[in-house]
């Protein structure tokens, strides 16, 4: 039986950095979903065209906790996390 490898995309933050986007702590790549959604989509498309079988969403830091660490208010941190998450879905 021949096994076919399953390919997974690379670290998203590194790819954004390679394309000139800063990914600073604490939000790292979460803000890219809001501010550079076209870039995020293009990276995913390139992964698929390159033969990846699985892509991961760019949601590692799309949490309320992340935005609270960035000194957002409770309300704003919830909205920031929600905007970032829903921008990629």
Description of the structure:
With 89 residues, the protein is mainly α. It has one domain. 49% of the residues lie in helices and 0% in strands. The longest helix is centred in the C-terminal third of the chain and has 14 residues. It is elongated. The chain starts with 11 loop residues before the first helix and ends with a helix.
Percent helix among the residues? 40-55%
Q: Number of DSSP helices?
A: 5
What is the CA-atom radius of gyration, in angstroms? 15 Å
Biggest β-sheet: count, sense, barrel? none
The 3D shape can be described as elongated
Distance between the termini: 36 Å
Give the percentage of residues in beta strands: under 5%
The SSE string, one letter per element, is: HHHHH
Write down the overall mean pLDDT: 86
> What is the domain tally?
1
Low-confidence stretches: none
**How many E-type strands?**
0
Overall structural class, as computed from helix and strand content, comes to mainly alpha
SSE blueprint:
Blueprint: H1 12-18, H2 32-35, H3 37-49, H4 64-69, H5 74-87
Condensed summary:
The protein is mainly alpha-helical and 89 residues long. The protein is 49% helix and 0% strand. It has one domain (12-87).
């Amino acid at each position: 039986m021949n096994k076919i490898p399953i390919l997974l995309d690379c670290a998203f933050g590194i790819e954004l950095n390679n394309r000139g986007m800063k990914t600073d702590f604490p939000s790292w790549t979460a803000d890219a979903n809001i501010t550079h959604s076209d870039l995020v989509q293009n990276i995913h498309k390139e992964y698929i065209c390159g033969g990846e079988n699985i892509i991961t969403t760019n949601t590692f830091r799309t949490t309320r906790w992340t935005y609270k660490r960035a000194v957002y208010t409770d309300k704003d941190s919830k909205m920031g996390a929600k905007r970032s998450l829903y921008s990629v879905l």
